[in-house]
Amino acid sequence: MNQDKQVYLDYAATTPVDARVMQVMLPYFSESFGNPSSIHRFGQTVESALENARLTIAQTMDCLPEEIIFTSCGTESDNLALRGSAFLARKERGANHLLISPVEHHAISRTAEQLASLHGFELEYLPVDSFGRTSAEDVACCLRPDTAIVSVIYANNEIGTLNPIANIGRLCRSRGITFHTDAVQAAGYLTLNVNSLTTDLISIGAHKFYGPKGIGALYIRKGLNILPSQTGGNQEYGYRAGTQNIPYIVGMAEALHLTQAEKEDRTELLKPLRDHLIGSILEEIPDVQLTGHPEERLPNHVSFIFKGVDGNALLMMLDMEGFACSSGSACKTGNPEPSDVLTSIGFTRDWALGSLRVTLGMYTTASEIEGFLQVLPKVVSELRKISP
Ligand SMILES: *Cc1c(COP(=O)(O)O)cnc(C)c1O
Fold it and tell me: Measured at the alpha carbon of residue 217, what is the angle toward residues 236 and 164, in degrees to the nearest 5?
């Protein structure tokens, strides 16, 4: 199979690195290779690149440079936020209660589960509606004086639903409870302004917005104290020891700057394609349901469940037809269990096993979408014929 002819419709799993991002990264692999902690000028050169990258990110998020901590990925940012807050809140004020939405990425949910099973925290799941949304009122009902941290995903990776982060943020701020949001999917399309979001901790990861894989950042509001995840040298204000990955950090800053500057244009380009996909699929294929919110969703995100269809077989058939899609979270491929996210918003196992996620990106064209719409109904009906 010629990969050039394959159509990539899985931008929520990862994105290619933007050529403009590659360009700014390259010198930091060779010419400017110093360690930013060194006193000499090899070190100084890259130290200033590091601090410029931090400043660029701070400017796009309307925060202070010292509020941005570089990590190795979105997952690590989520871990640092959750573990760091949980352990510190317990130490400082005896707080033992964790409050998360039931549709979090595994980087949050599995971390919270481990904090509960291994470290004795009390884990409670927030209510969600059938679109996977949690309201500020839902959070208000569950908040307790001993809540260590609240974590709610900004834009859901599996079902695309957006959460009212600013409302939840204002509520938590008024009660003095730490609030984290996983903005890894949101960063490509939505504001990351920390003041309008009123959020204490925000996770991002570069490879979801045309930056390199293996680099992320965590916004930590000034004055908030969290326990470092990784100890050693005093890099990253002591929150995350280890020599920084300068080329990737420089690349992430450029990617975030570009993506945030171009997000309205990308939204304008992709939203009509998204809505055309959703409308056509609902019209042309029987026994199908949209998952996630019809309007309050990422502009590049389409997700469905098909009754009586094996989701993995569907992905393989689509791949053979030249279309790369996903069944939800990339990490779940090959796993015959239905997605936790889909079952937690009320879908039965039977339906949830037939999930499909189609995510668009900056290289998606209208003709690719037409081609996909030609193929999908045929593939679904063939699979239904052979299913027991
Ligand atoms: C991809 C993703 C992550 C994990 O980010 P990595 O950089 O791949 O570790 C976390 N949360 C969400 C919502 C994601 O989409």
Answer: 135
